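Notes from hallway chat w/ T.B., transcribed later so I don't forget. T.B. wanted the structure written out for a chain they're using in a teaching module, and asked if we could keep both sequence and structure tokens in one place. Agreed to drop them here.
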Amino acid sequence: MENQNYPSWKQGMTYGIFTGLATILLSLIFYIADVYGEKWTSYFVYLILLGGIIFSSVNYRNKRLGGYITYGKSVSVGFLTGIFAGIIATIFIY
């Protein structure tokens, strides 16, 4: 295993920022297209959030832990990715 000491919060923060920026970009596209308040647009935002969380966990497993990850570490990375993405999106909405 390559680097087991790589902190999960760093992985979560990095991919959380990317995921948060992707949701902001999608929200701006929906706003420009004048469909921002529609219910179906929230499903796309959820898909981007879910994709960012999954991509973050898989990337952490493959690149940092040598292809093996525990359930707890995967949940931890996914949770931190969602938290940081939520913080970025909340700052944008405010």
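Follow-up for T.B.: The CA atoms of residues 31 and 76 lie 33 Å apart. Might be a good example for the class.
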